[in-house]
Amino acid sequence: MSSSARTRRPLAAGNWKMHKTLAEAQALAREIMAGCRDMAAEVALAPPFTALSIVAQEISGSAIRLAAQDVFWENQGAYTGAISPGMLLDVGCRYVIIGHSERRQYFGETDETVNKKIKAALGVGLAPIVCIGETLAQREAQETLNVITTQLAQGLAGLLPEEMSRLVLAYEPVWAIGTGRTATPEQAQEVHRFIRQWLTEQAGPEVAQGLRILYGGSVTPDNIRELSQAPDIDGALVGGASLKAASFLKIVAMGE
Question: What is the pTM of this model?
Answer without folding.
Answer: 0.95
